[in-house]
Design goal:
Layout: H1 2-21, H2 25-61, H3 69-79, H4 83-93, H5 98-105, H6 109-119
């Protein structure tokens, strides 16, 4: 009986010591998930940065020239609109025809007319 208890205790001590040298699979999965999360956040940051650069390029290609006080109010209203609507209005103010604006924005003439009528 003494030998059985001694054997069980020695096996328990051996397994306890061996557990310190074994790899923790949950820890490895947590590390992989953390790496994936970090890389996803970096990719998202880079995409947002590139999108911001593209938006700035679109906005700087069409300078806004304010001539009158009424036009200032119109420009303030346009700043709250999507970029495509702003571009259509800027092209229209520069004297482009509806056909030219439609070709430039890849919209139909009807869509350009509707945007110009509803926003003016």
């Amino acid at each position: 009986m003494f030998y059985i208890f001694l054997t069980i205790i020695l096996i328990a001590i051996g397994l306890f010591i061996a557990s310190f040298f074994m790899n923790d699979r949950i820890k490895e999965i947590e590390d992989q998930l953390e790496q994936f999360s970090i890389s996803t956040m970096q990719d998202t940051y880079q995409i947002k940065k590139k999108l911001k650069v593209l938006e700035e390029e679109l906005l700087t290609n069409e300078p806004i020239v304010v001539k009158k006080e009424a036009e200032r109010e119109h420009v303030d209203d346009l700043e709250n609109q999507p970029l495509l609507v702003q571009k259509i209005h800027h092209l229209h103010e520069q004297g482009f025809s509806v056909d030219d604006i439609a070709k430039e924005t890849n919209l139909s003439n009807h869509d350009v007319n509707m945007i110009l009528k509803h926003q003016l």
